[in-house]
């Protein structure tokens, strides 16, 4: 019976592959300097004979060096070094050479994975899928490059370990270079298109009067292209513009209907005026005939009949005049109603366009703009598990500033606060004015420590930038309550916690920031 330990190593293993490469070149252990013919048996028998003299390592090391020297290339050179060190008994050099051999070759021999596929083949498949599917899909709009990743994937499919990689490597490097060159062009094209779009919006704004509802749309789109473009913000802007277009359709329909009504009213009134003119002309002609008849009257009866005819014609003309007056009054009321309807539609359009999403004094968001942004950021934080911080700010001594410098000075302080905050906040952050001297800072993807650092940095920046006002340098500082959003917490609860912390900070003193306790 064959000993299980005598079974030949599998060709797929590292030892099996090494032995299979050298089955025709055996090594003996009888002498330290001359190689002996290798055994004719299997690999196990060769190993047994090779290690039979393990208690005398010099012959074994000599046999290993002699076997290595018969290999081609760098391995043969390594064998010559081992032979030289063995013959001169320089075992330090022999060990150093063995270490280099192990580090460079033995440790890099690939092992098969449990599924029977070497790591190199697994990496090949991953690279082929990345190049042939992912990169190819990204280059579909570039005819000069889109075929190259498909061809590279085909070559990778037929590559196997041991075959040269230089041609594939060179083509892959060239493809990466071409993509890098064109990516710079794509970025430049995107920036040029955005700047062209912004210039177009500037031109549109110049053509509009100050009361036009289109300013809201222009502001919304410019805010979108001015910040980082993400899917949620673009989709929100798209939904807002669709609502604006719908309102514009209603407004256009209302204006058309109002114009048609006014046209009909004026047409009817003109027809009545024409009728009155005809009747008035006939009335004048009849009066002239009555004057002639009056001269020819012969009796009281003739005069009485003539008087009745004059009164009857005069009454008819008077009735027509009264009807024209009533019709004109009705037309006026219809025109006023149409104008009121148009004004209502324009106001609705202004609201939906976004003119009331920003505070006209400071340029910060107002309450409606904050509610919409907070709703989006809460949904995004819940979806991705990102942190979200909200701070409620209140200016210290604001009423005193109003008293000393008037409302214009107070307005200047509010604008100064917003401008300094916008100078230091990220593009993803936002500041909103709730009313008076209360503001809200919204800090997406900001953990508690960073949000506290942001508020303290804003306080230091304000302290370094006093506001020049009435030939004085007015210090501006605020107190704040900071709340960190907890998963599942609604917006109202988050604002309440920040508000409670703000009042606690006010009680402690001025120019303070207090963090809210987590909800219980």
UniProtKB/TrEMBL annotation:
SUPFAM superfamilies: Nucleotide cyclase (SSF55073). GO terms for molecular function: diguanylate cyclase activity. NCBIfam families: GGDEF (TIGR00254). Its EC number is 2.7.7.65. The lineage of its organism: Bacteria, Pseudomonadati, Pseudomonadota, Gammaproteobacteria, Lysobacterales. It catalyses: 2 GTP = 3',3'-c-di-GMP + 2 diphosphate. It comes from the Bacteria. It holds the Pfam family GGDEF. PANTHER family: DIGUANYLATE CYCLASE DGCM-RELATED, REGULATORY COMPONENTS OF SENSORY TRANSDUCTION SYSTEM. InterPro entries: Diguanylate_Cyclase, GGDEF_dom, Nucleotide_cyclase, Rev_trsase/Diguanyl_cyclase. Residues 1-44 are annotated as: Disordered. This is diguanylate cyclase. Transmembrane segments: none annotated. Residues 386-518 form the GGDEF domain. Gene3D superfamilies: 3.30.70.270. Residues 321-355 form a coiled coil. Keywords: Coiled coil, Nucleotidyltransferase, Transferase.
């Amino acid at each position: 019976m064959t000993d299980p330990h005598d079974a030949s190593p599998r060709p797929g293993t590292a030892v099996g592959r090494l032995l299979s490469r050298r089955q025709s070149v055996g090594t003996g252990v009888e002498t330290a300097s001359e190689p002996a013919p290798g055994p004719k048996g299997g690999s196990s028998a060769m190993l047994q004979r090779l290690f039979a003299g393990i208690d005398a390592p010099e012959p074994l090391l000599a046999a290993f060096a002699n076997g290595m020297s018969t290999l081609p290339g760098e391995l043969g050179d390594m064998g010559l070094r081992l032979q030289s060190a063995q013959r001169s008994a320089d075992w330090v050099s022999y060990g150093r050479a063995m270490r280099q051999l192990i580090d460079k070759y033995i440790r890099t021999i690939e092992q098969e994975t449990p599924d029977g596929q070497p790591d190199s083949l697994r990496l090949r498949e991953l690279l082929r899928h990345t190049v042939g599917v992912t990169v190819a899909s990204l280059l579909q709009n570039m005819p000069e490059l889109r075929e190259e990743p498909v061809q590279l994937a085909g070559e990778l499919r037929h590559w196997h370990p041991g075959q040269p990689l230089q041609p594939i490597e060179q083509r892959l490097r060239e493809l990466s270079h071409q993509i890098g060159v064109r990516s710079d062009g794509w970025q430049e094209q995107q920036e040029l298109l955005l700047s062209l779009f912004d210039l177009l919006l500037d031109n549109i704004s110049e053509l509009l009067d100050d009361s036009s509802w289109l300013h809201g749309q222009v502001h919304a789109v410019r805010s979108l292209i001015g910040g980082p473009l993400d899917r949620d913000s673009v989709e929100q802007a798209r939904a807002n513009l669709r609502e604006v277009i719908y309102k514009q359709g209603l407004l256009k329909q209302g204006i058309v209907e109002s114009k048609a009504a006014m046209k009909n009213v004026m047409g009817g009134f003109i027809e009545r005026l024409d009728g009155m003119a005809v009747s008035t002309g006939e009335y004048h002609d009849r009066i002239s005939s009555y004057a002639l008849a009056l001269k020819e009257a012969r009796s009281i009866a003739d005069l009485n009949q003539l008087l009745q005819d004059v009164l009857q014609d005069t009454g008819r003309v008077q009735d027509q005049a009264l009807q024209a007056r009533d019709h004109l009054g009705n037309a006026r009321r219809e025109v006023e109603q149409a104008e009121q309807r148009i004004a209502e539609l324009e106001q609705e359009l202004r609201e939906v366009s976004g003119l009331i999403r920003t505070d006209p004094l400071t340029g910060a968001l107002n309450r409606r703009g904050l509610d919409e942004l907070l709703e989006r950021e809460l949904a995004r934080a819940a979806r991705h598990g990102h942190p979200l911080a909200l701070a409620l700010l209140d200016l210290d001594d604001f009423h005193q500033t109003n008293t000393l410098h008037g409302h214009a000075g107070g307005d200047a302080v509010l604008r100064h606060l917003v401008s300094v905050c916008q100078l230091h906040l990220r593009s993803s952050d936002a500041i909103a004015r709730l009313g008076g001297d209360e503001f809200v800072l919204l800090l997406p993807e900001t953990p508690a420590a960073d949000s506290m650092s942001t508020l303290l940095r804003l306080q230091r920046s304000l302290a370094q930038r006093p506001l020049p006002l009435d030939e004085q340098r007015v210090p501006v500082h605020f107190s704040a309550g900071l709340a960190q959003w907890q998963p599942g917490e609604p917006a109202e609860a988050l604002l309440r916690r920040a508000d409670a912390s703000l009042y606690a900070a006010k009680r402690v003193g001025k120019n303070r920031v207090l963090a809210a306790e987590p909800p219980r």
